[in-house]
Structure formats: structure tokens, C-alpha cells
Amino acid sequence: MTTTYTFDVFTSLDGYGTATGGWSGYWGKQGPELLDHRLAQYCAQQRMVFGANTYRTFTSLLAANTEETLHDPWVTRMLSLPATFVSTTLEEPLDWPDATLVKGDAVDVVGRLKEESDVPLRSHGSLSMNRALMAAGLVDLVQVTVFPVVTGQTGATPVFEGAADFDLELVSTRTLDGRTQELVYRPTLH
Predict the structure, then answer these.
(1) Which of 51, 130, 151, 154 has the fewest C-beta atoms lying within 10 Å of its C-beta?
(2) Do 87 and 101 touch, CB atoms closer than 8 A?
(3) In whole angstroms, how far apart are CA 93 and each of 55, 62, 98, 113?
(4) pLDDT value at position 1?
């Protein structure tokens, strides 16, 4: 049996995953409905899948302890879930609770995980890895949370830069806190 894999990503309206220039986490647009909804999504049993860059980013932010959003309950829950890190560069031991490091190509590793896992798989971030997984047909759902900002001058990390072309079937949509959109799509290569 094959389990589902969800690529979960935050973005500005113009497609950037992060921004410079004084924007805070969630671009300063988080609200109680968004935070409660995120916690509910992460309370379900699932396995997280991350790449090396996301590991380095999270552990650096956690060590610095300067990003307030890292203490949000849904983030705490995400960090406590079992996680597989796919990398050719990371070395054990990983500074992450319940972490498994798998060396190799993400397409091969996630293909095996989808066949073997008895819980759904989810990845928050890990953009380049997830673009490769989408191109290989391994991403079942793309969950895009669109924050109501345009970061044309300060946007960094374009979410789908260099991605293949995809048709997206809208599975669900939700407005959170009257301003933030969550869109869930089923991707297929175009």
C-alpha cells in the first residue's frame, strides 16, 4: 500500500517562501485561526520528510532562539514528529528528536518511504527536494498557504523556481483569519 505525501509550503502572494527587509515569520500575518488550524493538521500521526537545507535552517534558528514562531504549538508538534532527513551531506548524529538520516537520492528514498510507511508523509519547506519529488510524481498533495503580502523588493527563495510544469486540481480551499488562503492541490505533470 502506498501512503500519501504532502508538500506543505508557506508563500507570499508573489511566490516567495521567505523575505528579507524586516518581515517577521508568517510575514506578520498569523492569527489564531491559522495557528489552531496548523496545530490540528500536525496532531495527526505522520512522518516528516526534510532535506539537508531545511535541517540546517531549522537547527540554526532553534540554536539562535530569536525566531518567535518556532515556539508556536504547531511547530513544537512538528519538531516532535518522527522525521526522515534525506541527504548526501548531513552526518549523524542529528540534533533533532526522533530523526532518521537516509543517505541517497530523494526520489529513491521517498519512493521507498511511500511504499513502506504506515502513516502519511509530510514535508514543510525543503523546496528543491519537493520540486524534484513533484517532477517524479511522488507528491500527492501540494498544500500552499498564501499570506496576503507582496514581497517584490525583498522576496527570497522563490517556491517553484526551476520546477517542472504542472496542472493542479484544486482539492480544497480555506480562508484563515479572514486574510490568509490555504489551497490544497493534486499536481500532475503537464
Answers:
(1) 154
(2) yes
(3) 12, 17, 11, 21
(4) 66
State the DSSP code for 36.
H
If phi > 0 it is left, if psi is from -120 to 50 it is alpha, else beta; for residue 105 that is beta
pLDDT band at 69 (very low <50, low <70, confident <90, very high): confident
Question: What DSSP character marks residue 68?
Answer: G
Calculate what percentage of the chain has a pLDDT beyond 70. Answer: 98
Torsions phi, psi of 68, nearest 5? -60, -35
Mean pLDDT for all residues in the chain: 95
Domain 5-189: CATH class, spelled out: alpha beta
Q: What is the DSSP secondary-structure string of 85-114? A: EEESS--SSPSSTTEEEEES-HHHHHHHHH
